[in-house]
Predict the 3D structure of the following.
Amino acid sequence: MISLLNKKILITGASSGIGRSTAILFSELGADVIITARNKENLNETFMKLKANPNHQQIVGDLTSIDDIKKIITEIQAIDGFVHCCGKVLPVPVKFIKQEQLQDVFGVNYFSAVNTVSELLKQKKINNNSSIVFISSVSTLHAYFGGAPYISSKAALEGYAKTLALELVPKKIRVNVLQPALVKTAIFESTIDAAVNNEEMMKLVSKYPLGVGEPDDVAKASAFFISDVSKWITGTNLKMDGGLTLGFN
């Protein structure tokens, strides 16, 4: 049985989707949950769904802002785990990629993670023997049309995670990455609506032997890596694709 009792966990992107499911699950597993996101109303909705605990905390902030990151880290106590769920998808063919689009996607998917971890370490707000989990994407292994900005930002995050895992070994802080395929979130639905029609969508979903993922599937994998059950695992990427890529490895 996985337990997060007496662990203080920071979860970003907690206003919806994977971040929200992760926060709710972690609260049920006994963690003191600190949630953050840009949308105050949606973040509070998540907060109200957490299992009652006076030590839970919510902080509204924009992780593309260095000032906001510093403010968030200053307001929290030292943590035992960090799950970085905030992310942004922006489908655009390579021919039409613009600099501002790259800055936008990398700001949310990559620089927010790097800058948050840096601030946690500078302020000594992450305990030894802690665990860090980054949410990446299976698309870093299997590209799709129009995915260059998103895939590149997630690939950069995976490369960063490997180095971070190596550098934090002396503190016994573990760093691992989850690589989910399609998960039923608002981001996924809006991207699909913009990219494919219903017939193409059904054809896409049919390629998943175990079906399209649910946010809770990713949350449960995060719980494993944050918990002491995985204390001998660091520097790994876990592909989660419902069997999509079986036979194509």
